[in-house]
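Reopening this ticket.

The earlier resolution said the output was attached, but the attachment link was broken on my side. Pasting everything inline this time so it's all in one place.
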Amino acid sequence: MPDTPHLWMRHESRPTERRAPLTPGDAGHLVSQGVRITVEESDQRVFPLADYAAAGCATAPTASWAGQAPTDAYVLGLKELPDGPDAPALRHRHIYFGHAYKGQAGATELLARFTAGGGALLDMEYLTDDAGRRVAAFGYWAGYIGAALAVLHRRGRLTTPLAPMDRPALDALLGSGAAGDTTAALVIGALGRSGRGACDALTRAGLTPTRWDVAETREIDRAALLGHDLLVNTVLTVRPVPPFLTHADLDEPGRRLSVVSDVTCDVTSECNVLPVYEETTTWESPVSRLREGGPGQNPADLIAIDNLPSLLPAEASTAFSAELTPHLARLTDTDPVWARALRLFEAAAADTAQEASLVR
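Inline output:
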């Protein structure tokens, strides 16, 4: 790959995805350092294409990367690539959240597309520093919005379908109805990015959350967990651990818990710590009923939306882009952050190829 990278920021194929991994201002900063940037037209991105052009970026038609991006370009995005039986092999290096290293649904097929095309996945979830900490994440805003939606649902103030808004509008909704609300809320993973965001939203809503982290999850106090009204899970694990909540818990007589917001949404992975549901929820139908309830038992509802930060697209994109931009400026095979990401892909792709050969 050349010393001066060429970034090609694609349009997001998911209709509800309005974020951008790179803001116009940060794109201009990279251009001033010699980074070449092409930005696809998008009718849903929160930042206008004209702002990127004014920052010195080239522009391209929507979804043109597969046919028009040079082979040495890095295709930059956020959510899933278009798939299906006619999906092409992937010849570029792609930077996005691939969700392909923990056995998630579709992971084998995705990695095979990269192998067939000679491309590579530099997964944003695995861009880490020397200490193993992620260098860029949407976690804070995911936690904030996940907790906010749970509060609004519990108060009967959640309107659907969901639509993007700004922080002042969301905070105004959280403040409405706070007086006299005695909801007992629990955040698991409270010390992480997402957990801090969730706790801040609950505090904004006038609640005082119980905060659990590593010490409290080594051995779950199930009676204490089920004794809360609202649970926000923000824990993302890379290895299987005992689940935090099970179907047996939901069937427990006298269960108080009635709203679960799973910010992590690791639903198709064996690392899922909330194996009480099989599908994520959506902007159109953000709440799924896990239990109807009955005599002496509350109903139990789930919120599990896997692109929560897109509901606050400007704030979330601005924060993420600020963290990612310094690393995009150092985008080479020798930079430790990117080298680690490439090695992870190569190992995952090799494992997938070996499994395929054994099946044959």
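Reporter confirms the inline version is readable. The longest strand covers residues 36-40. Residues 18 and 45 are 4 Å apart (CA to CA).
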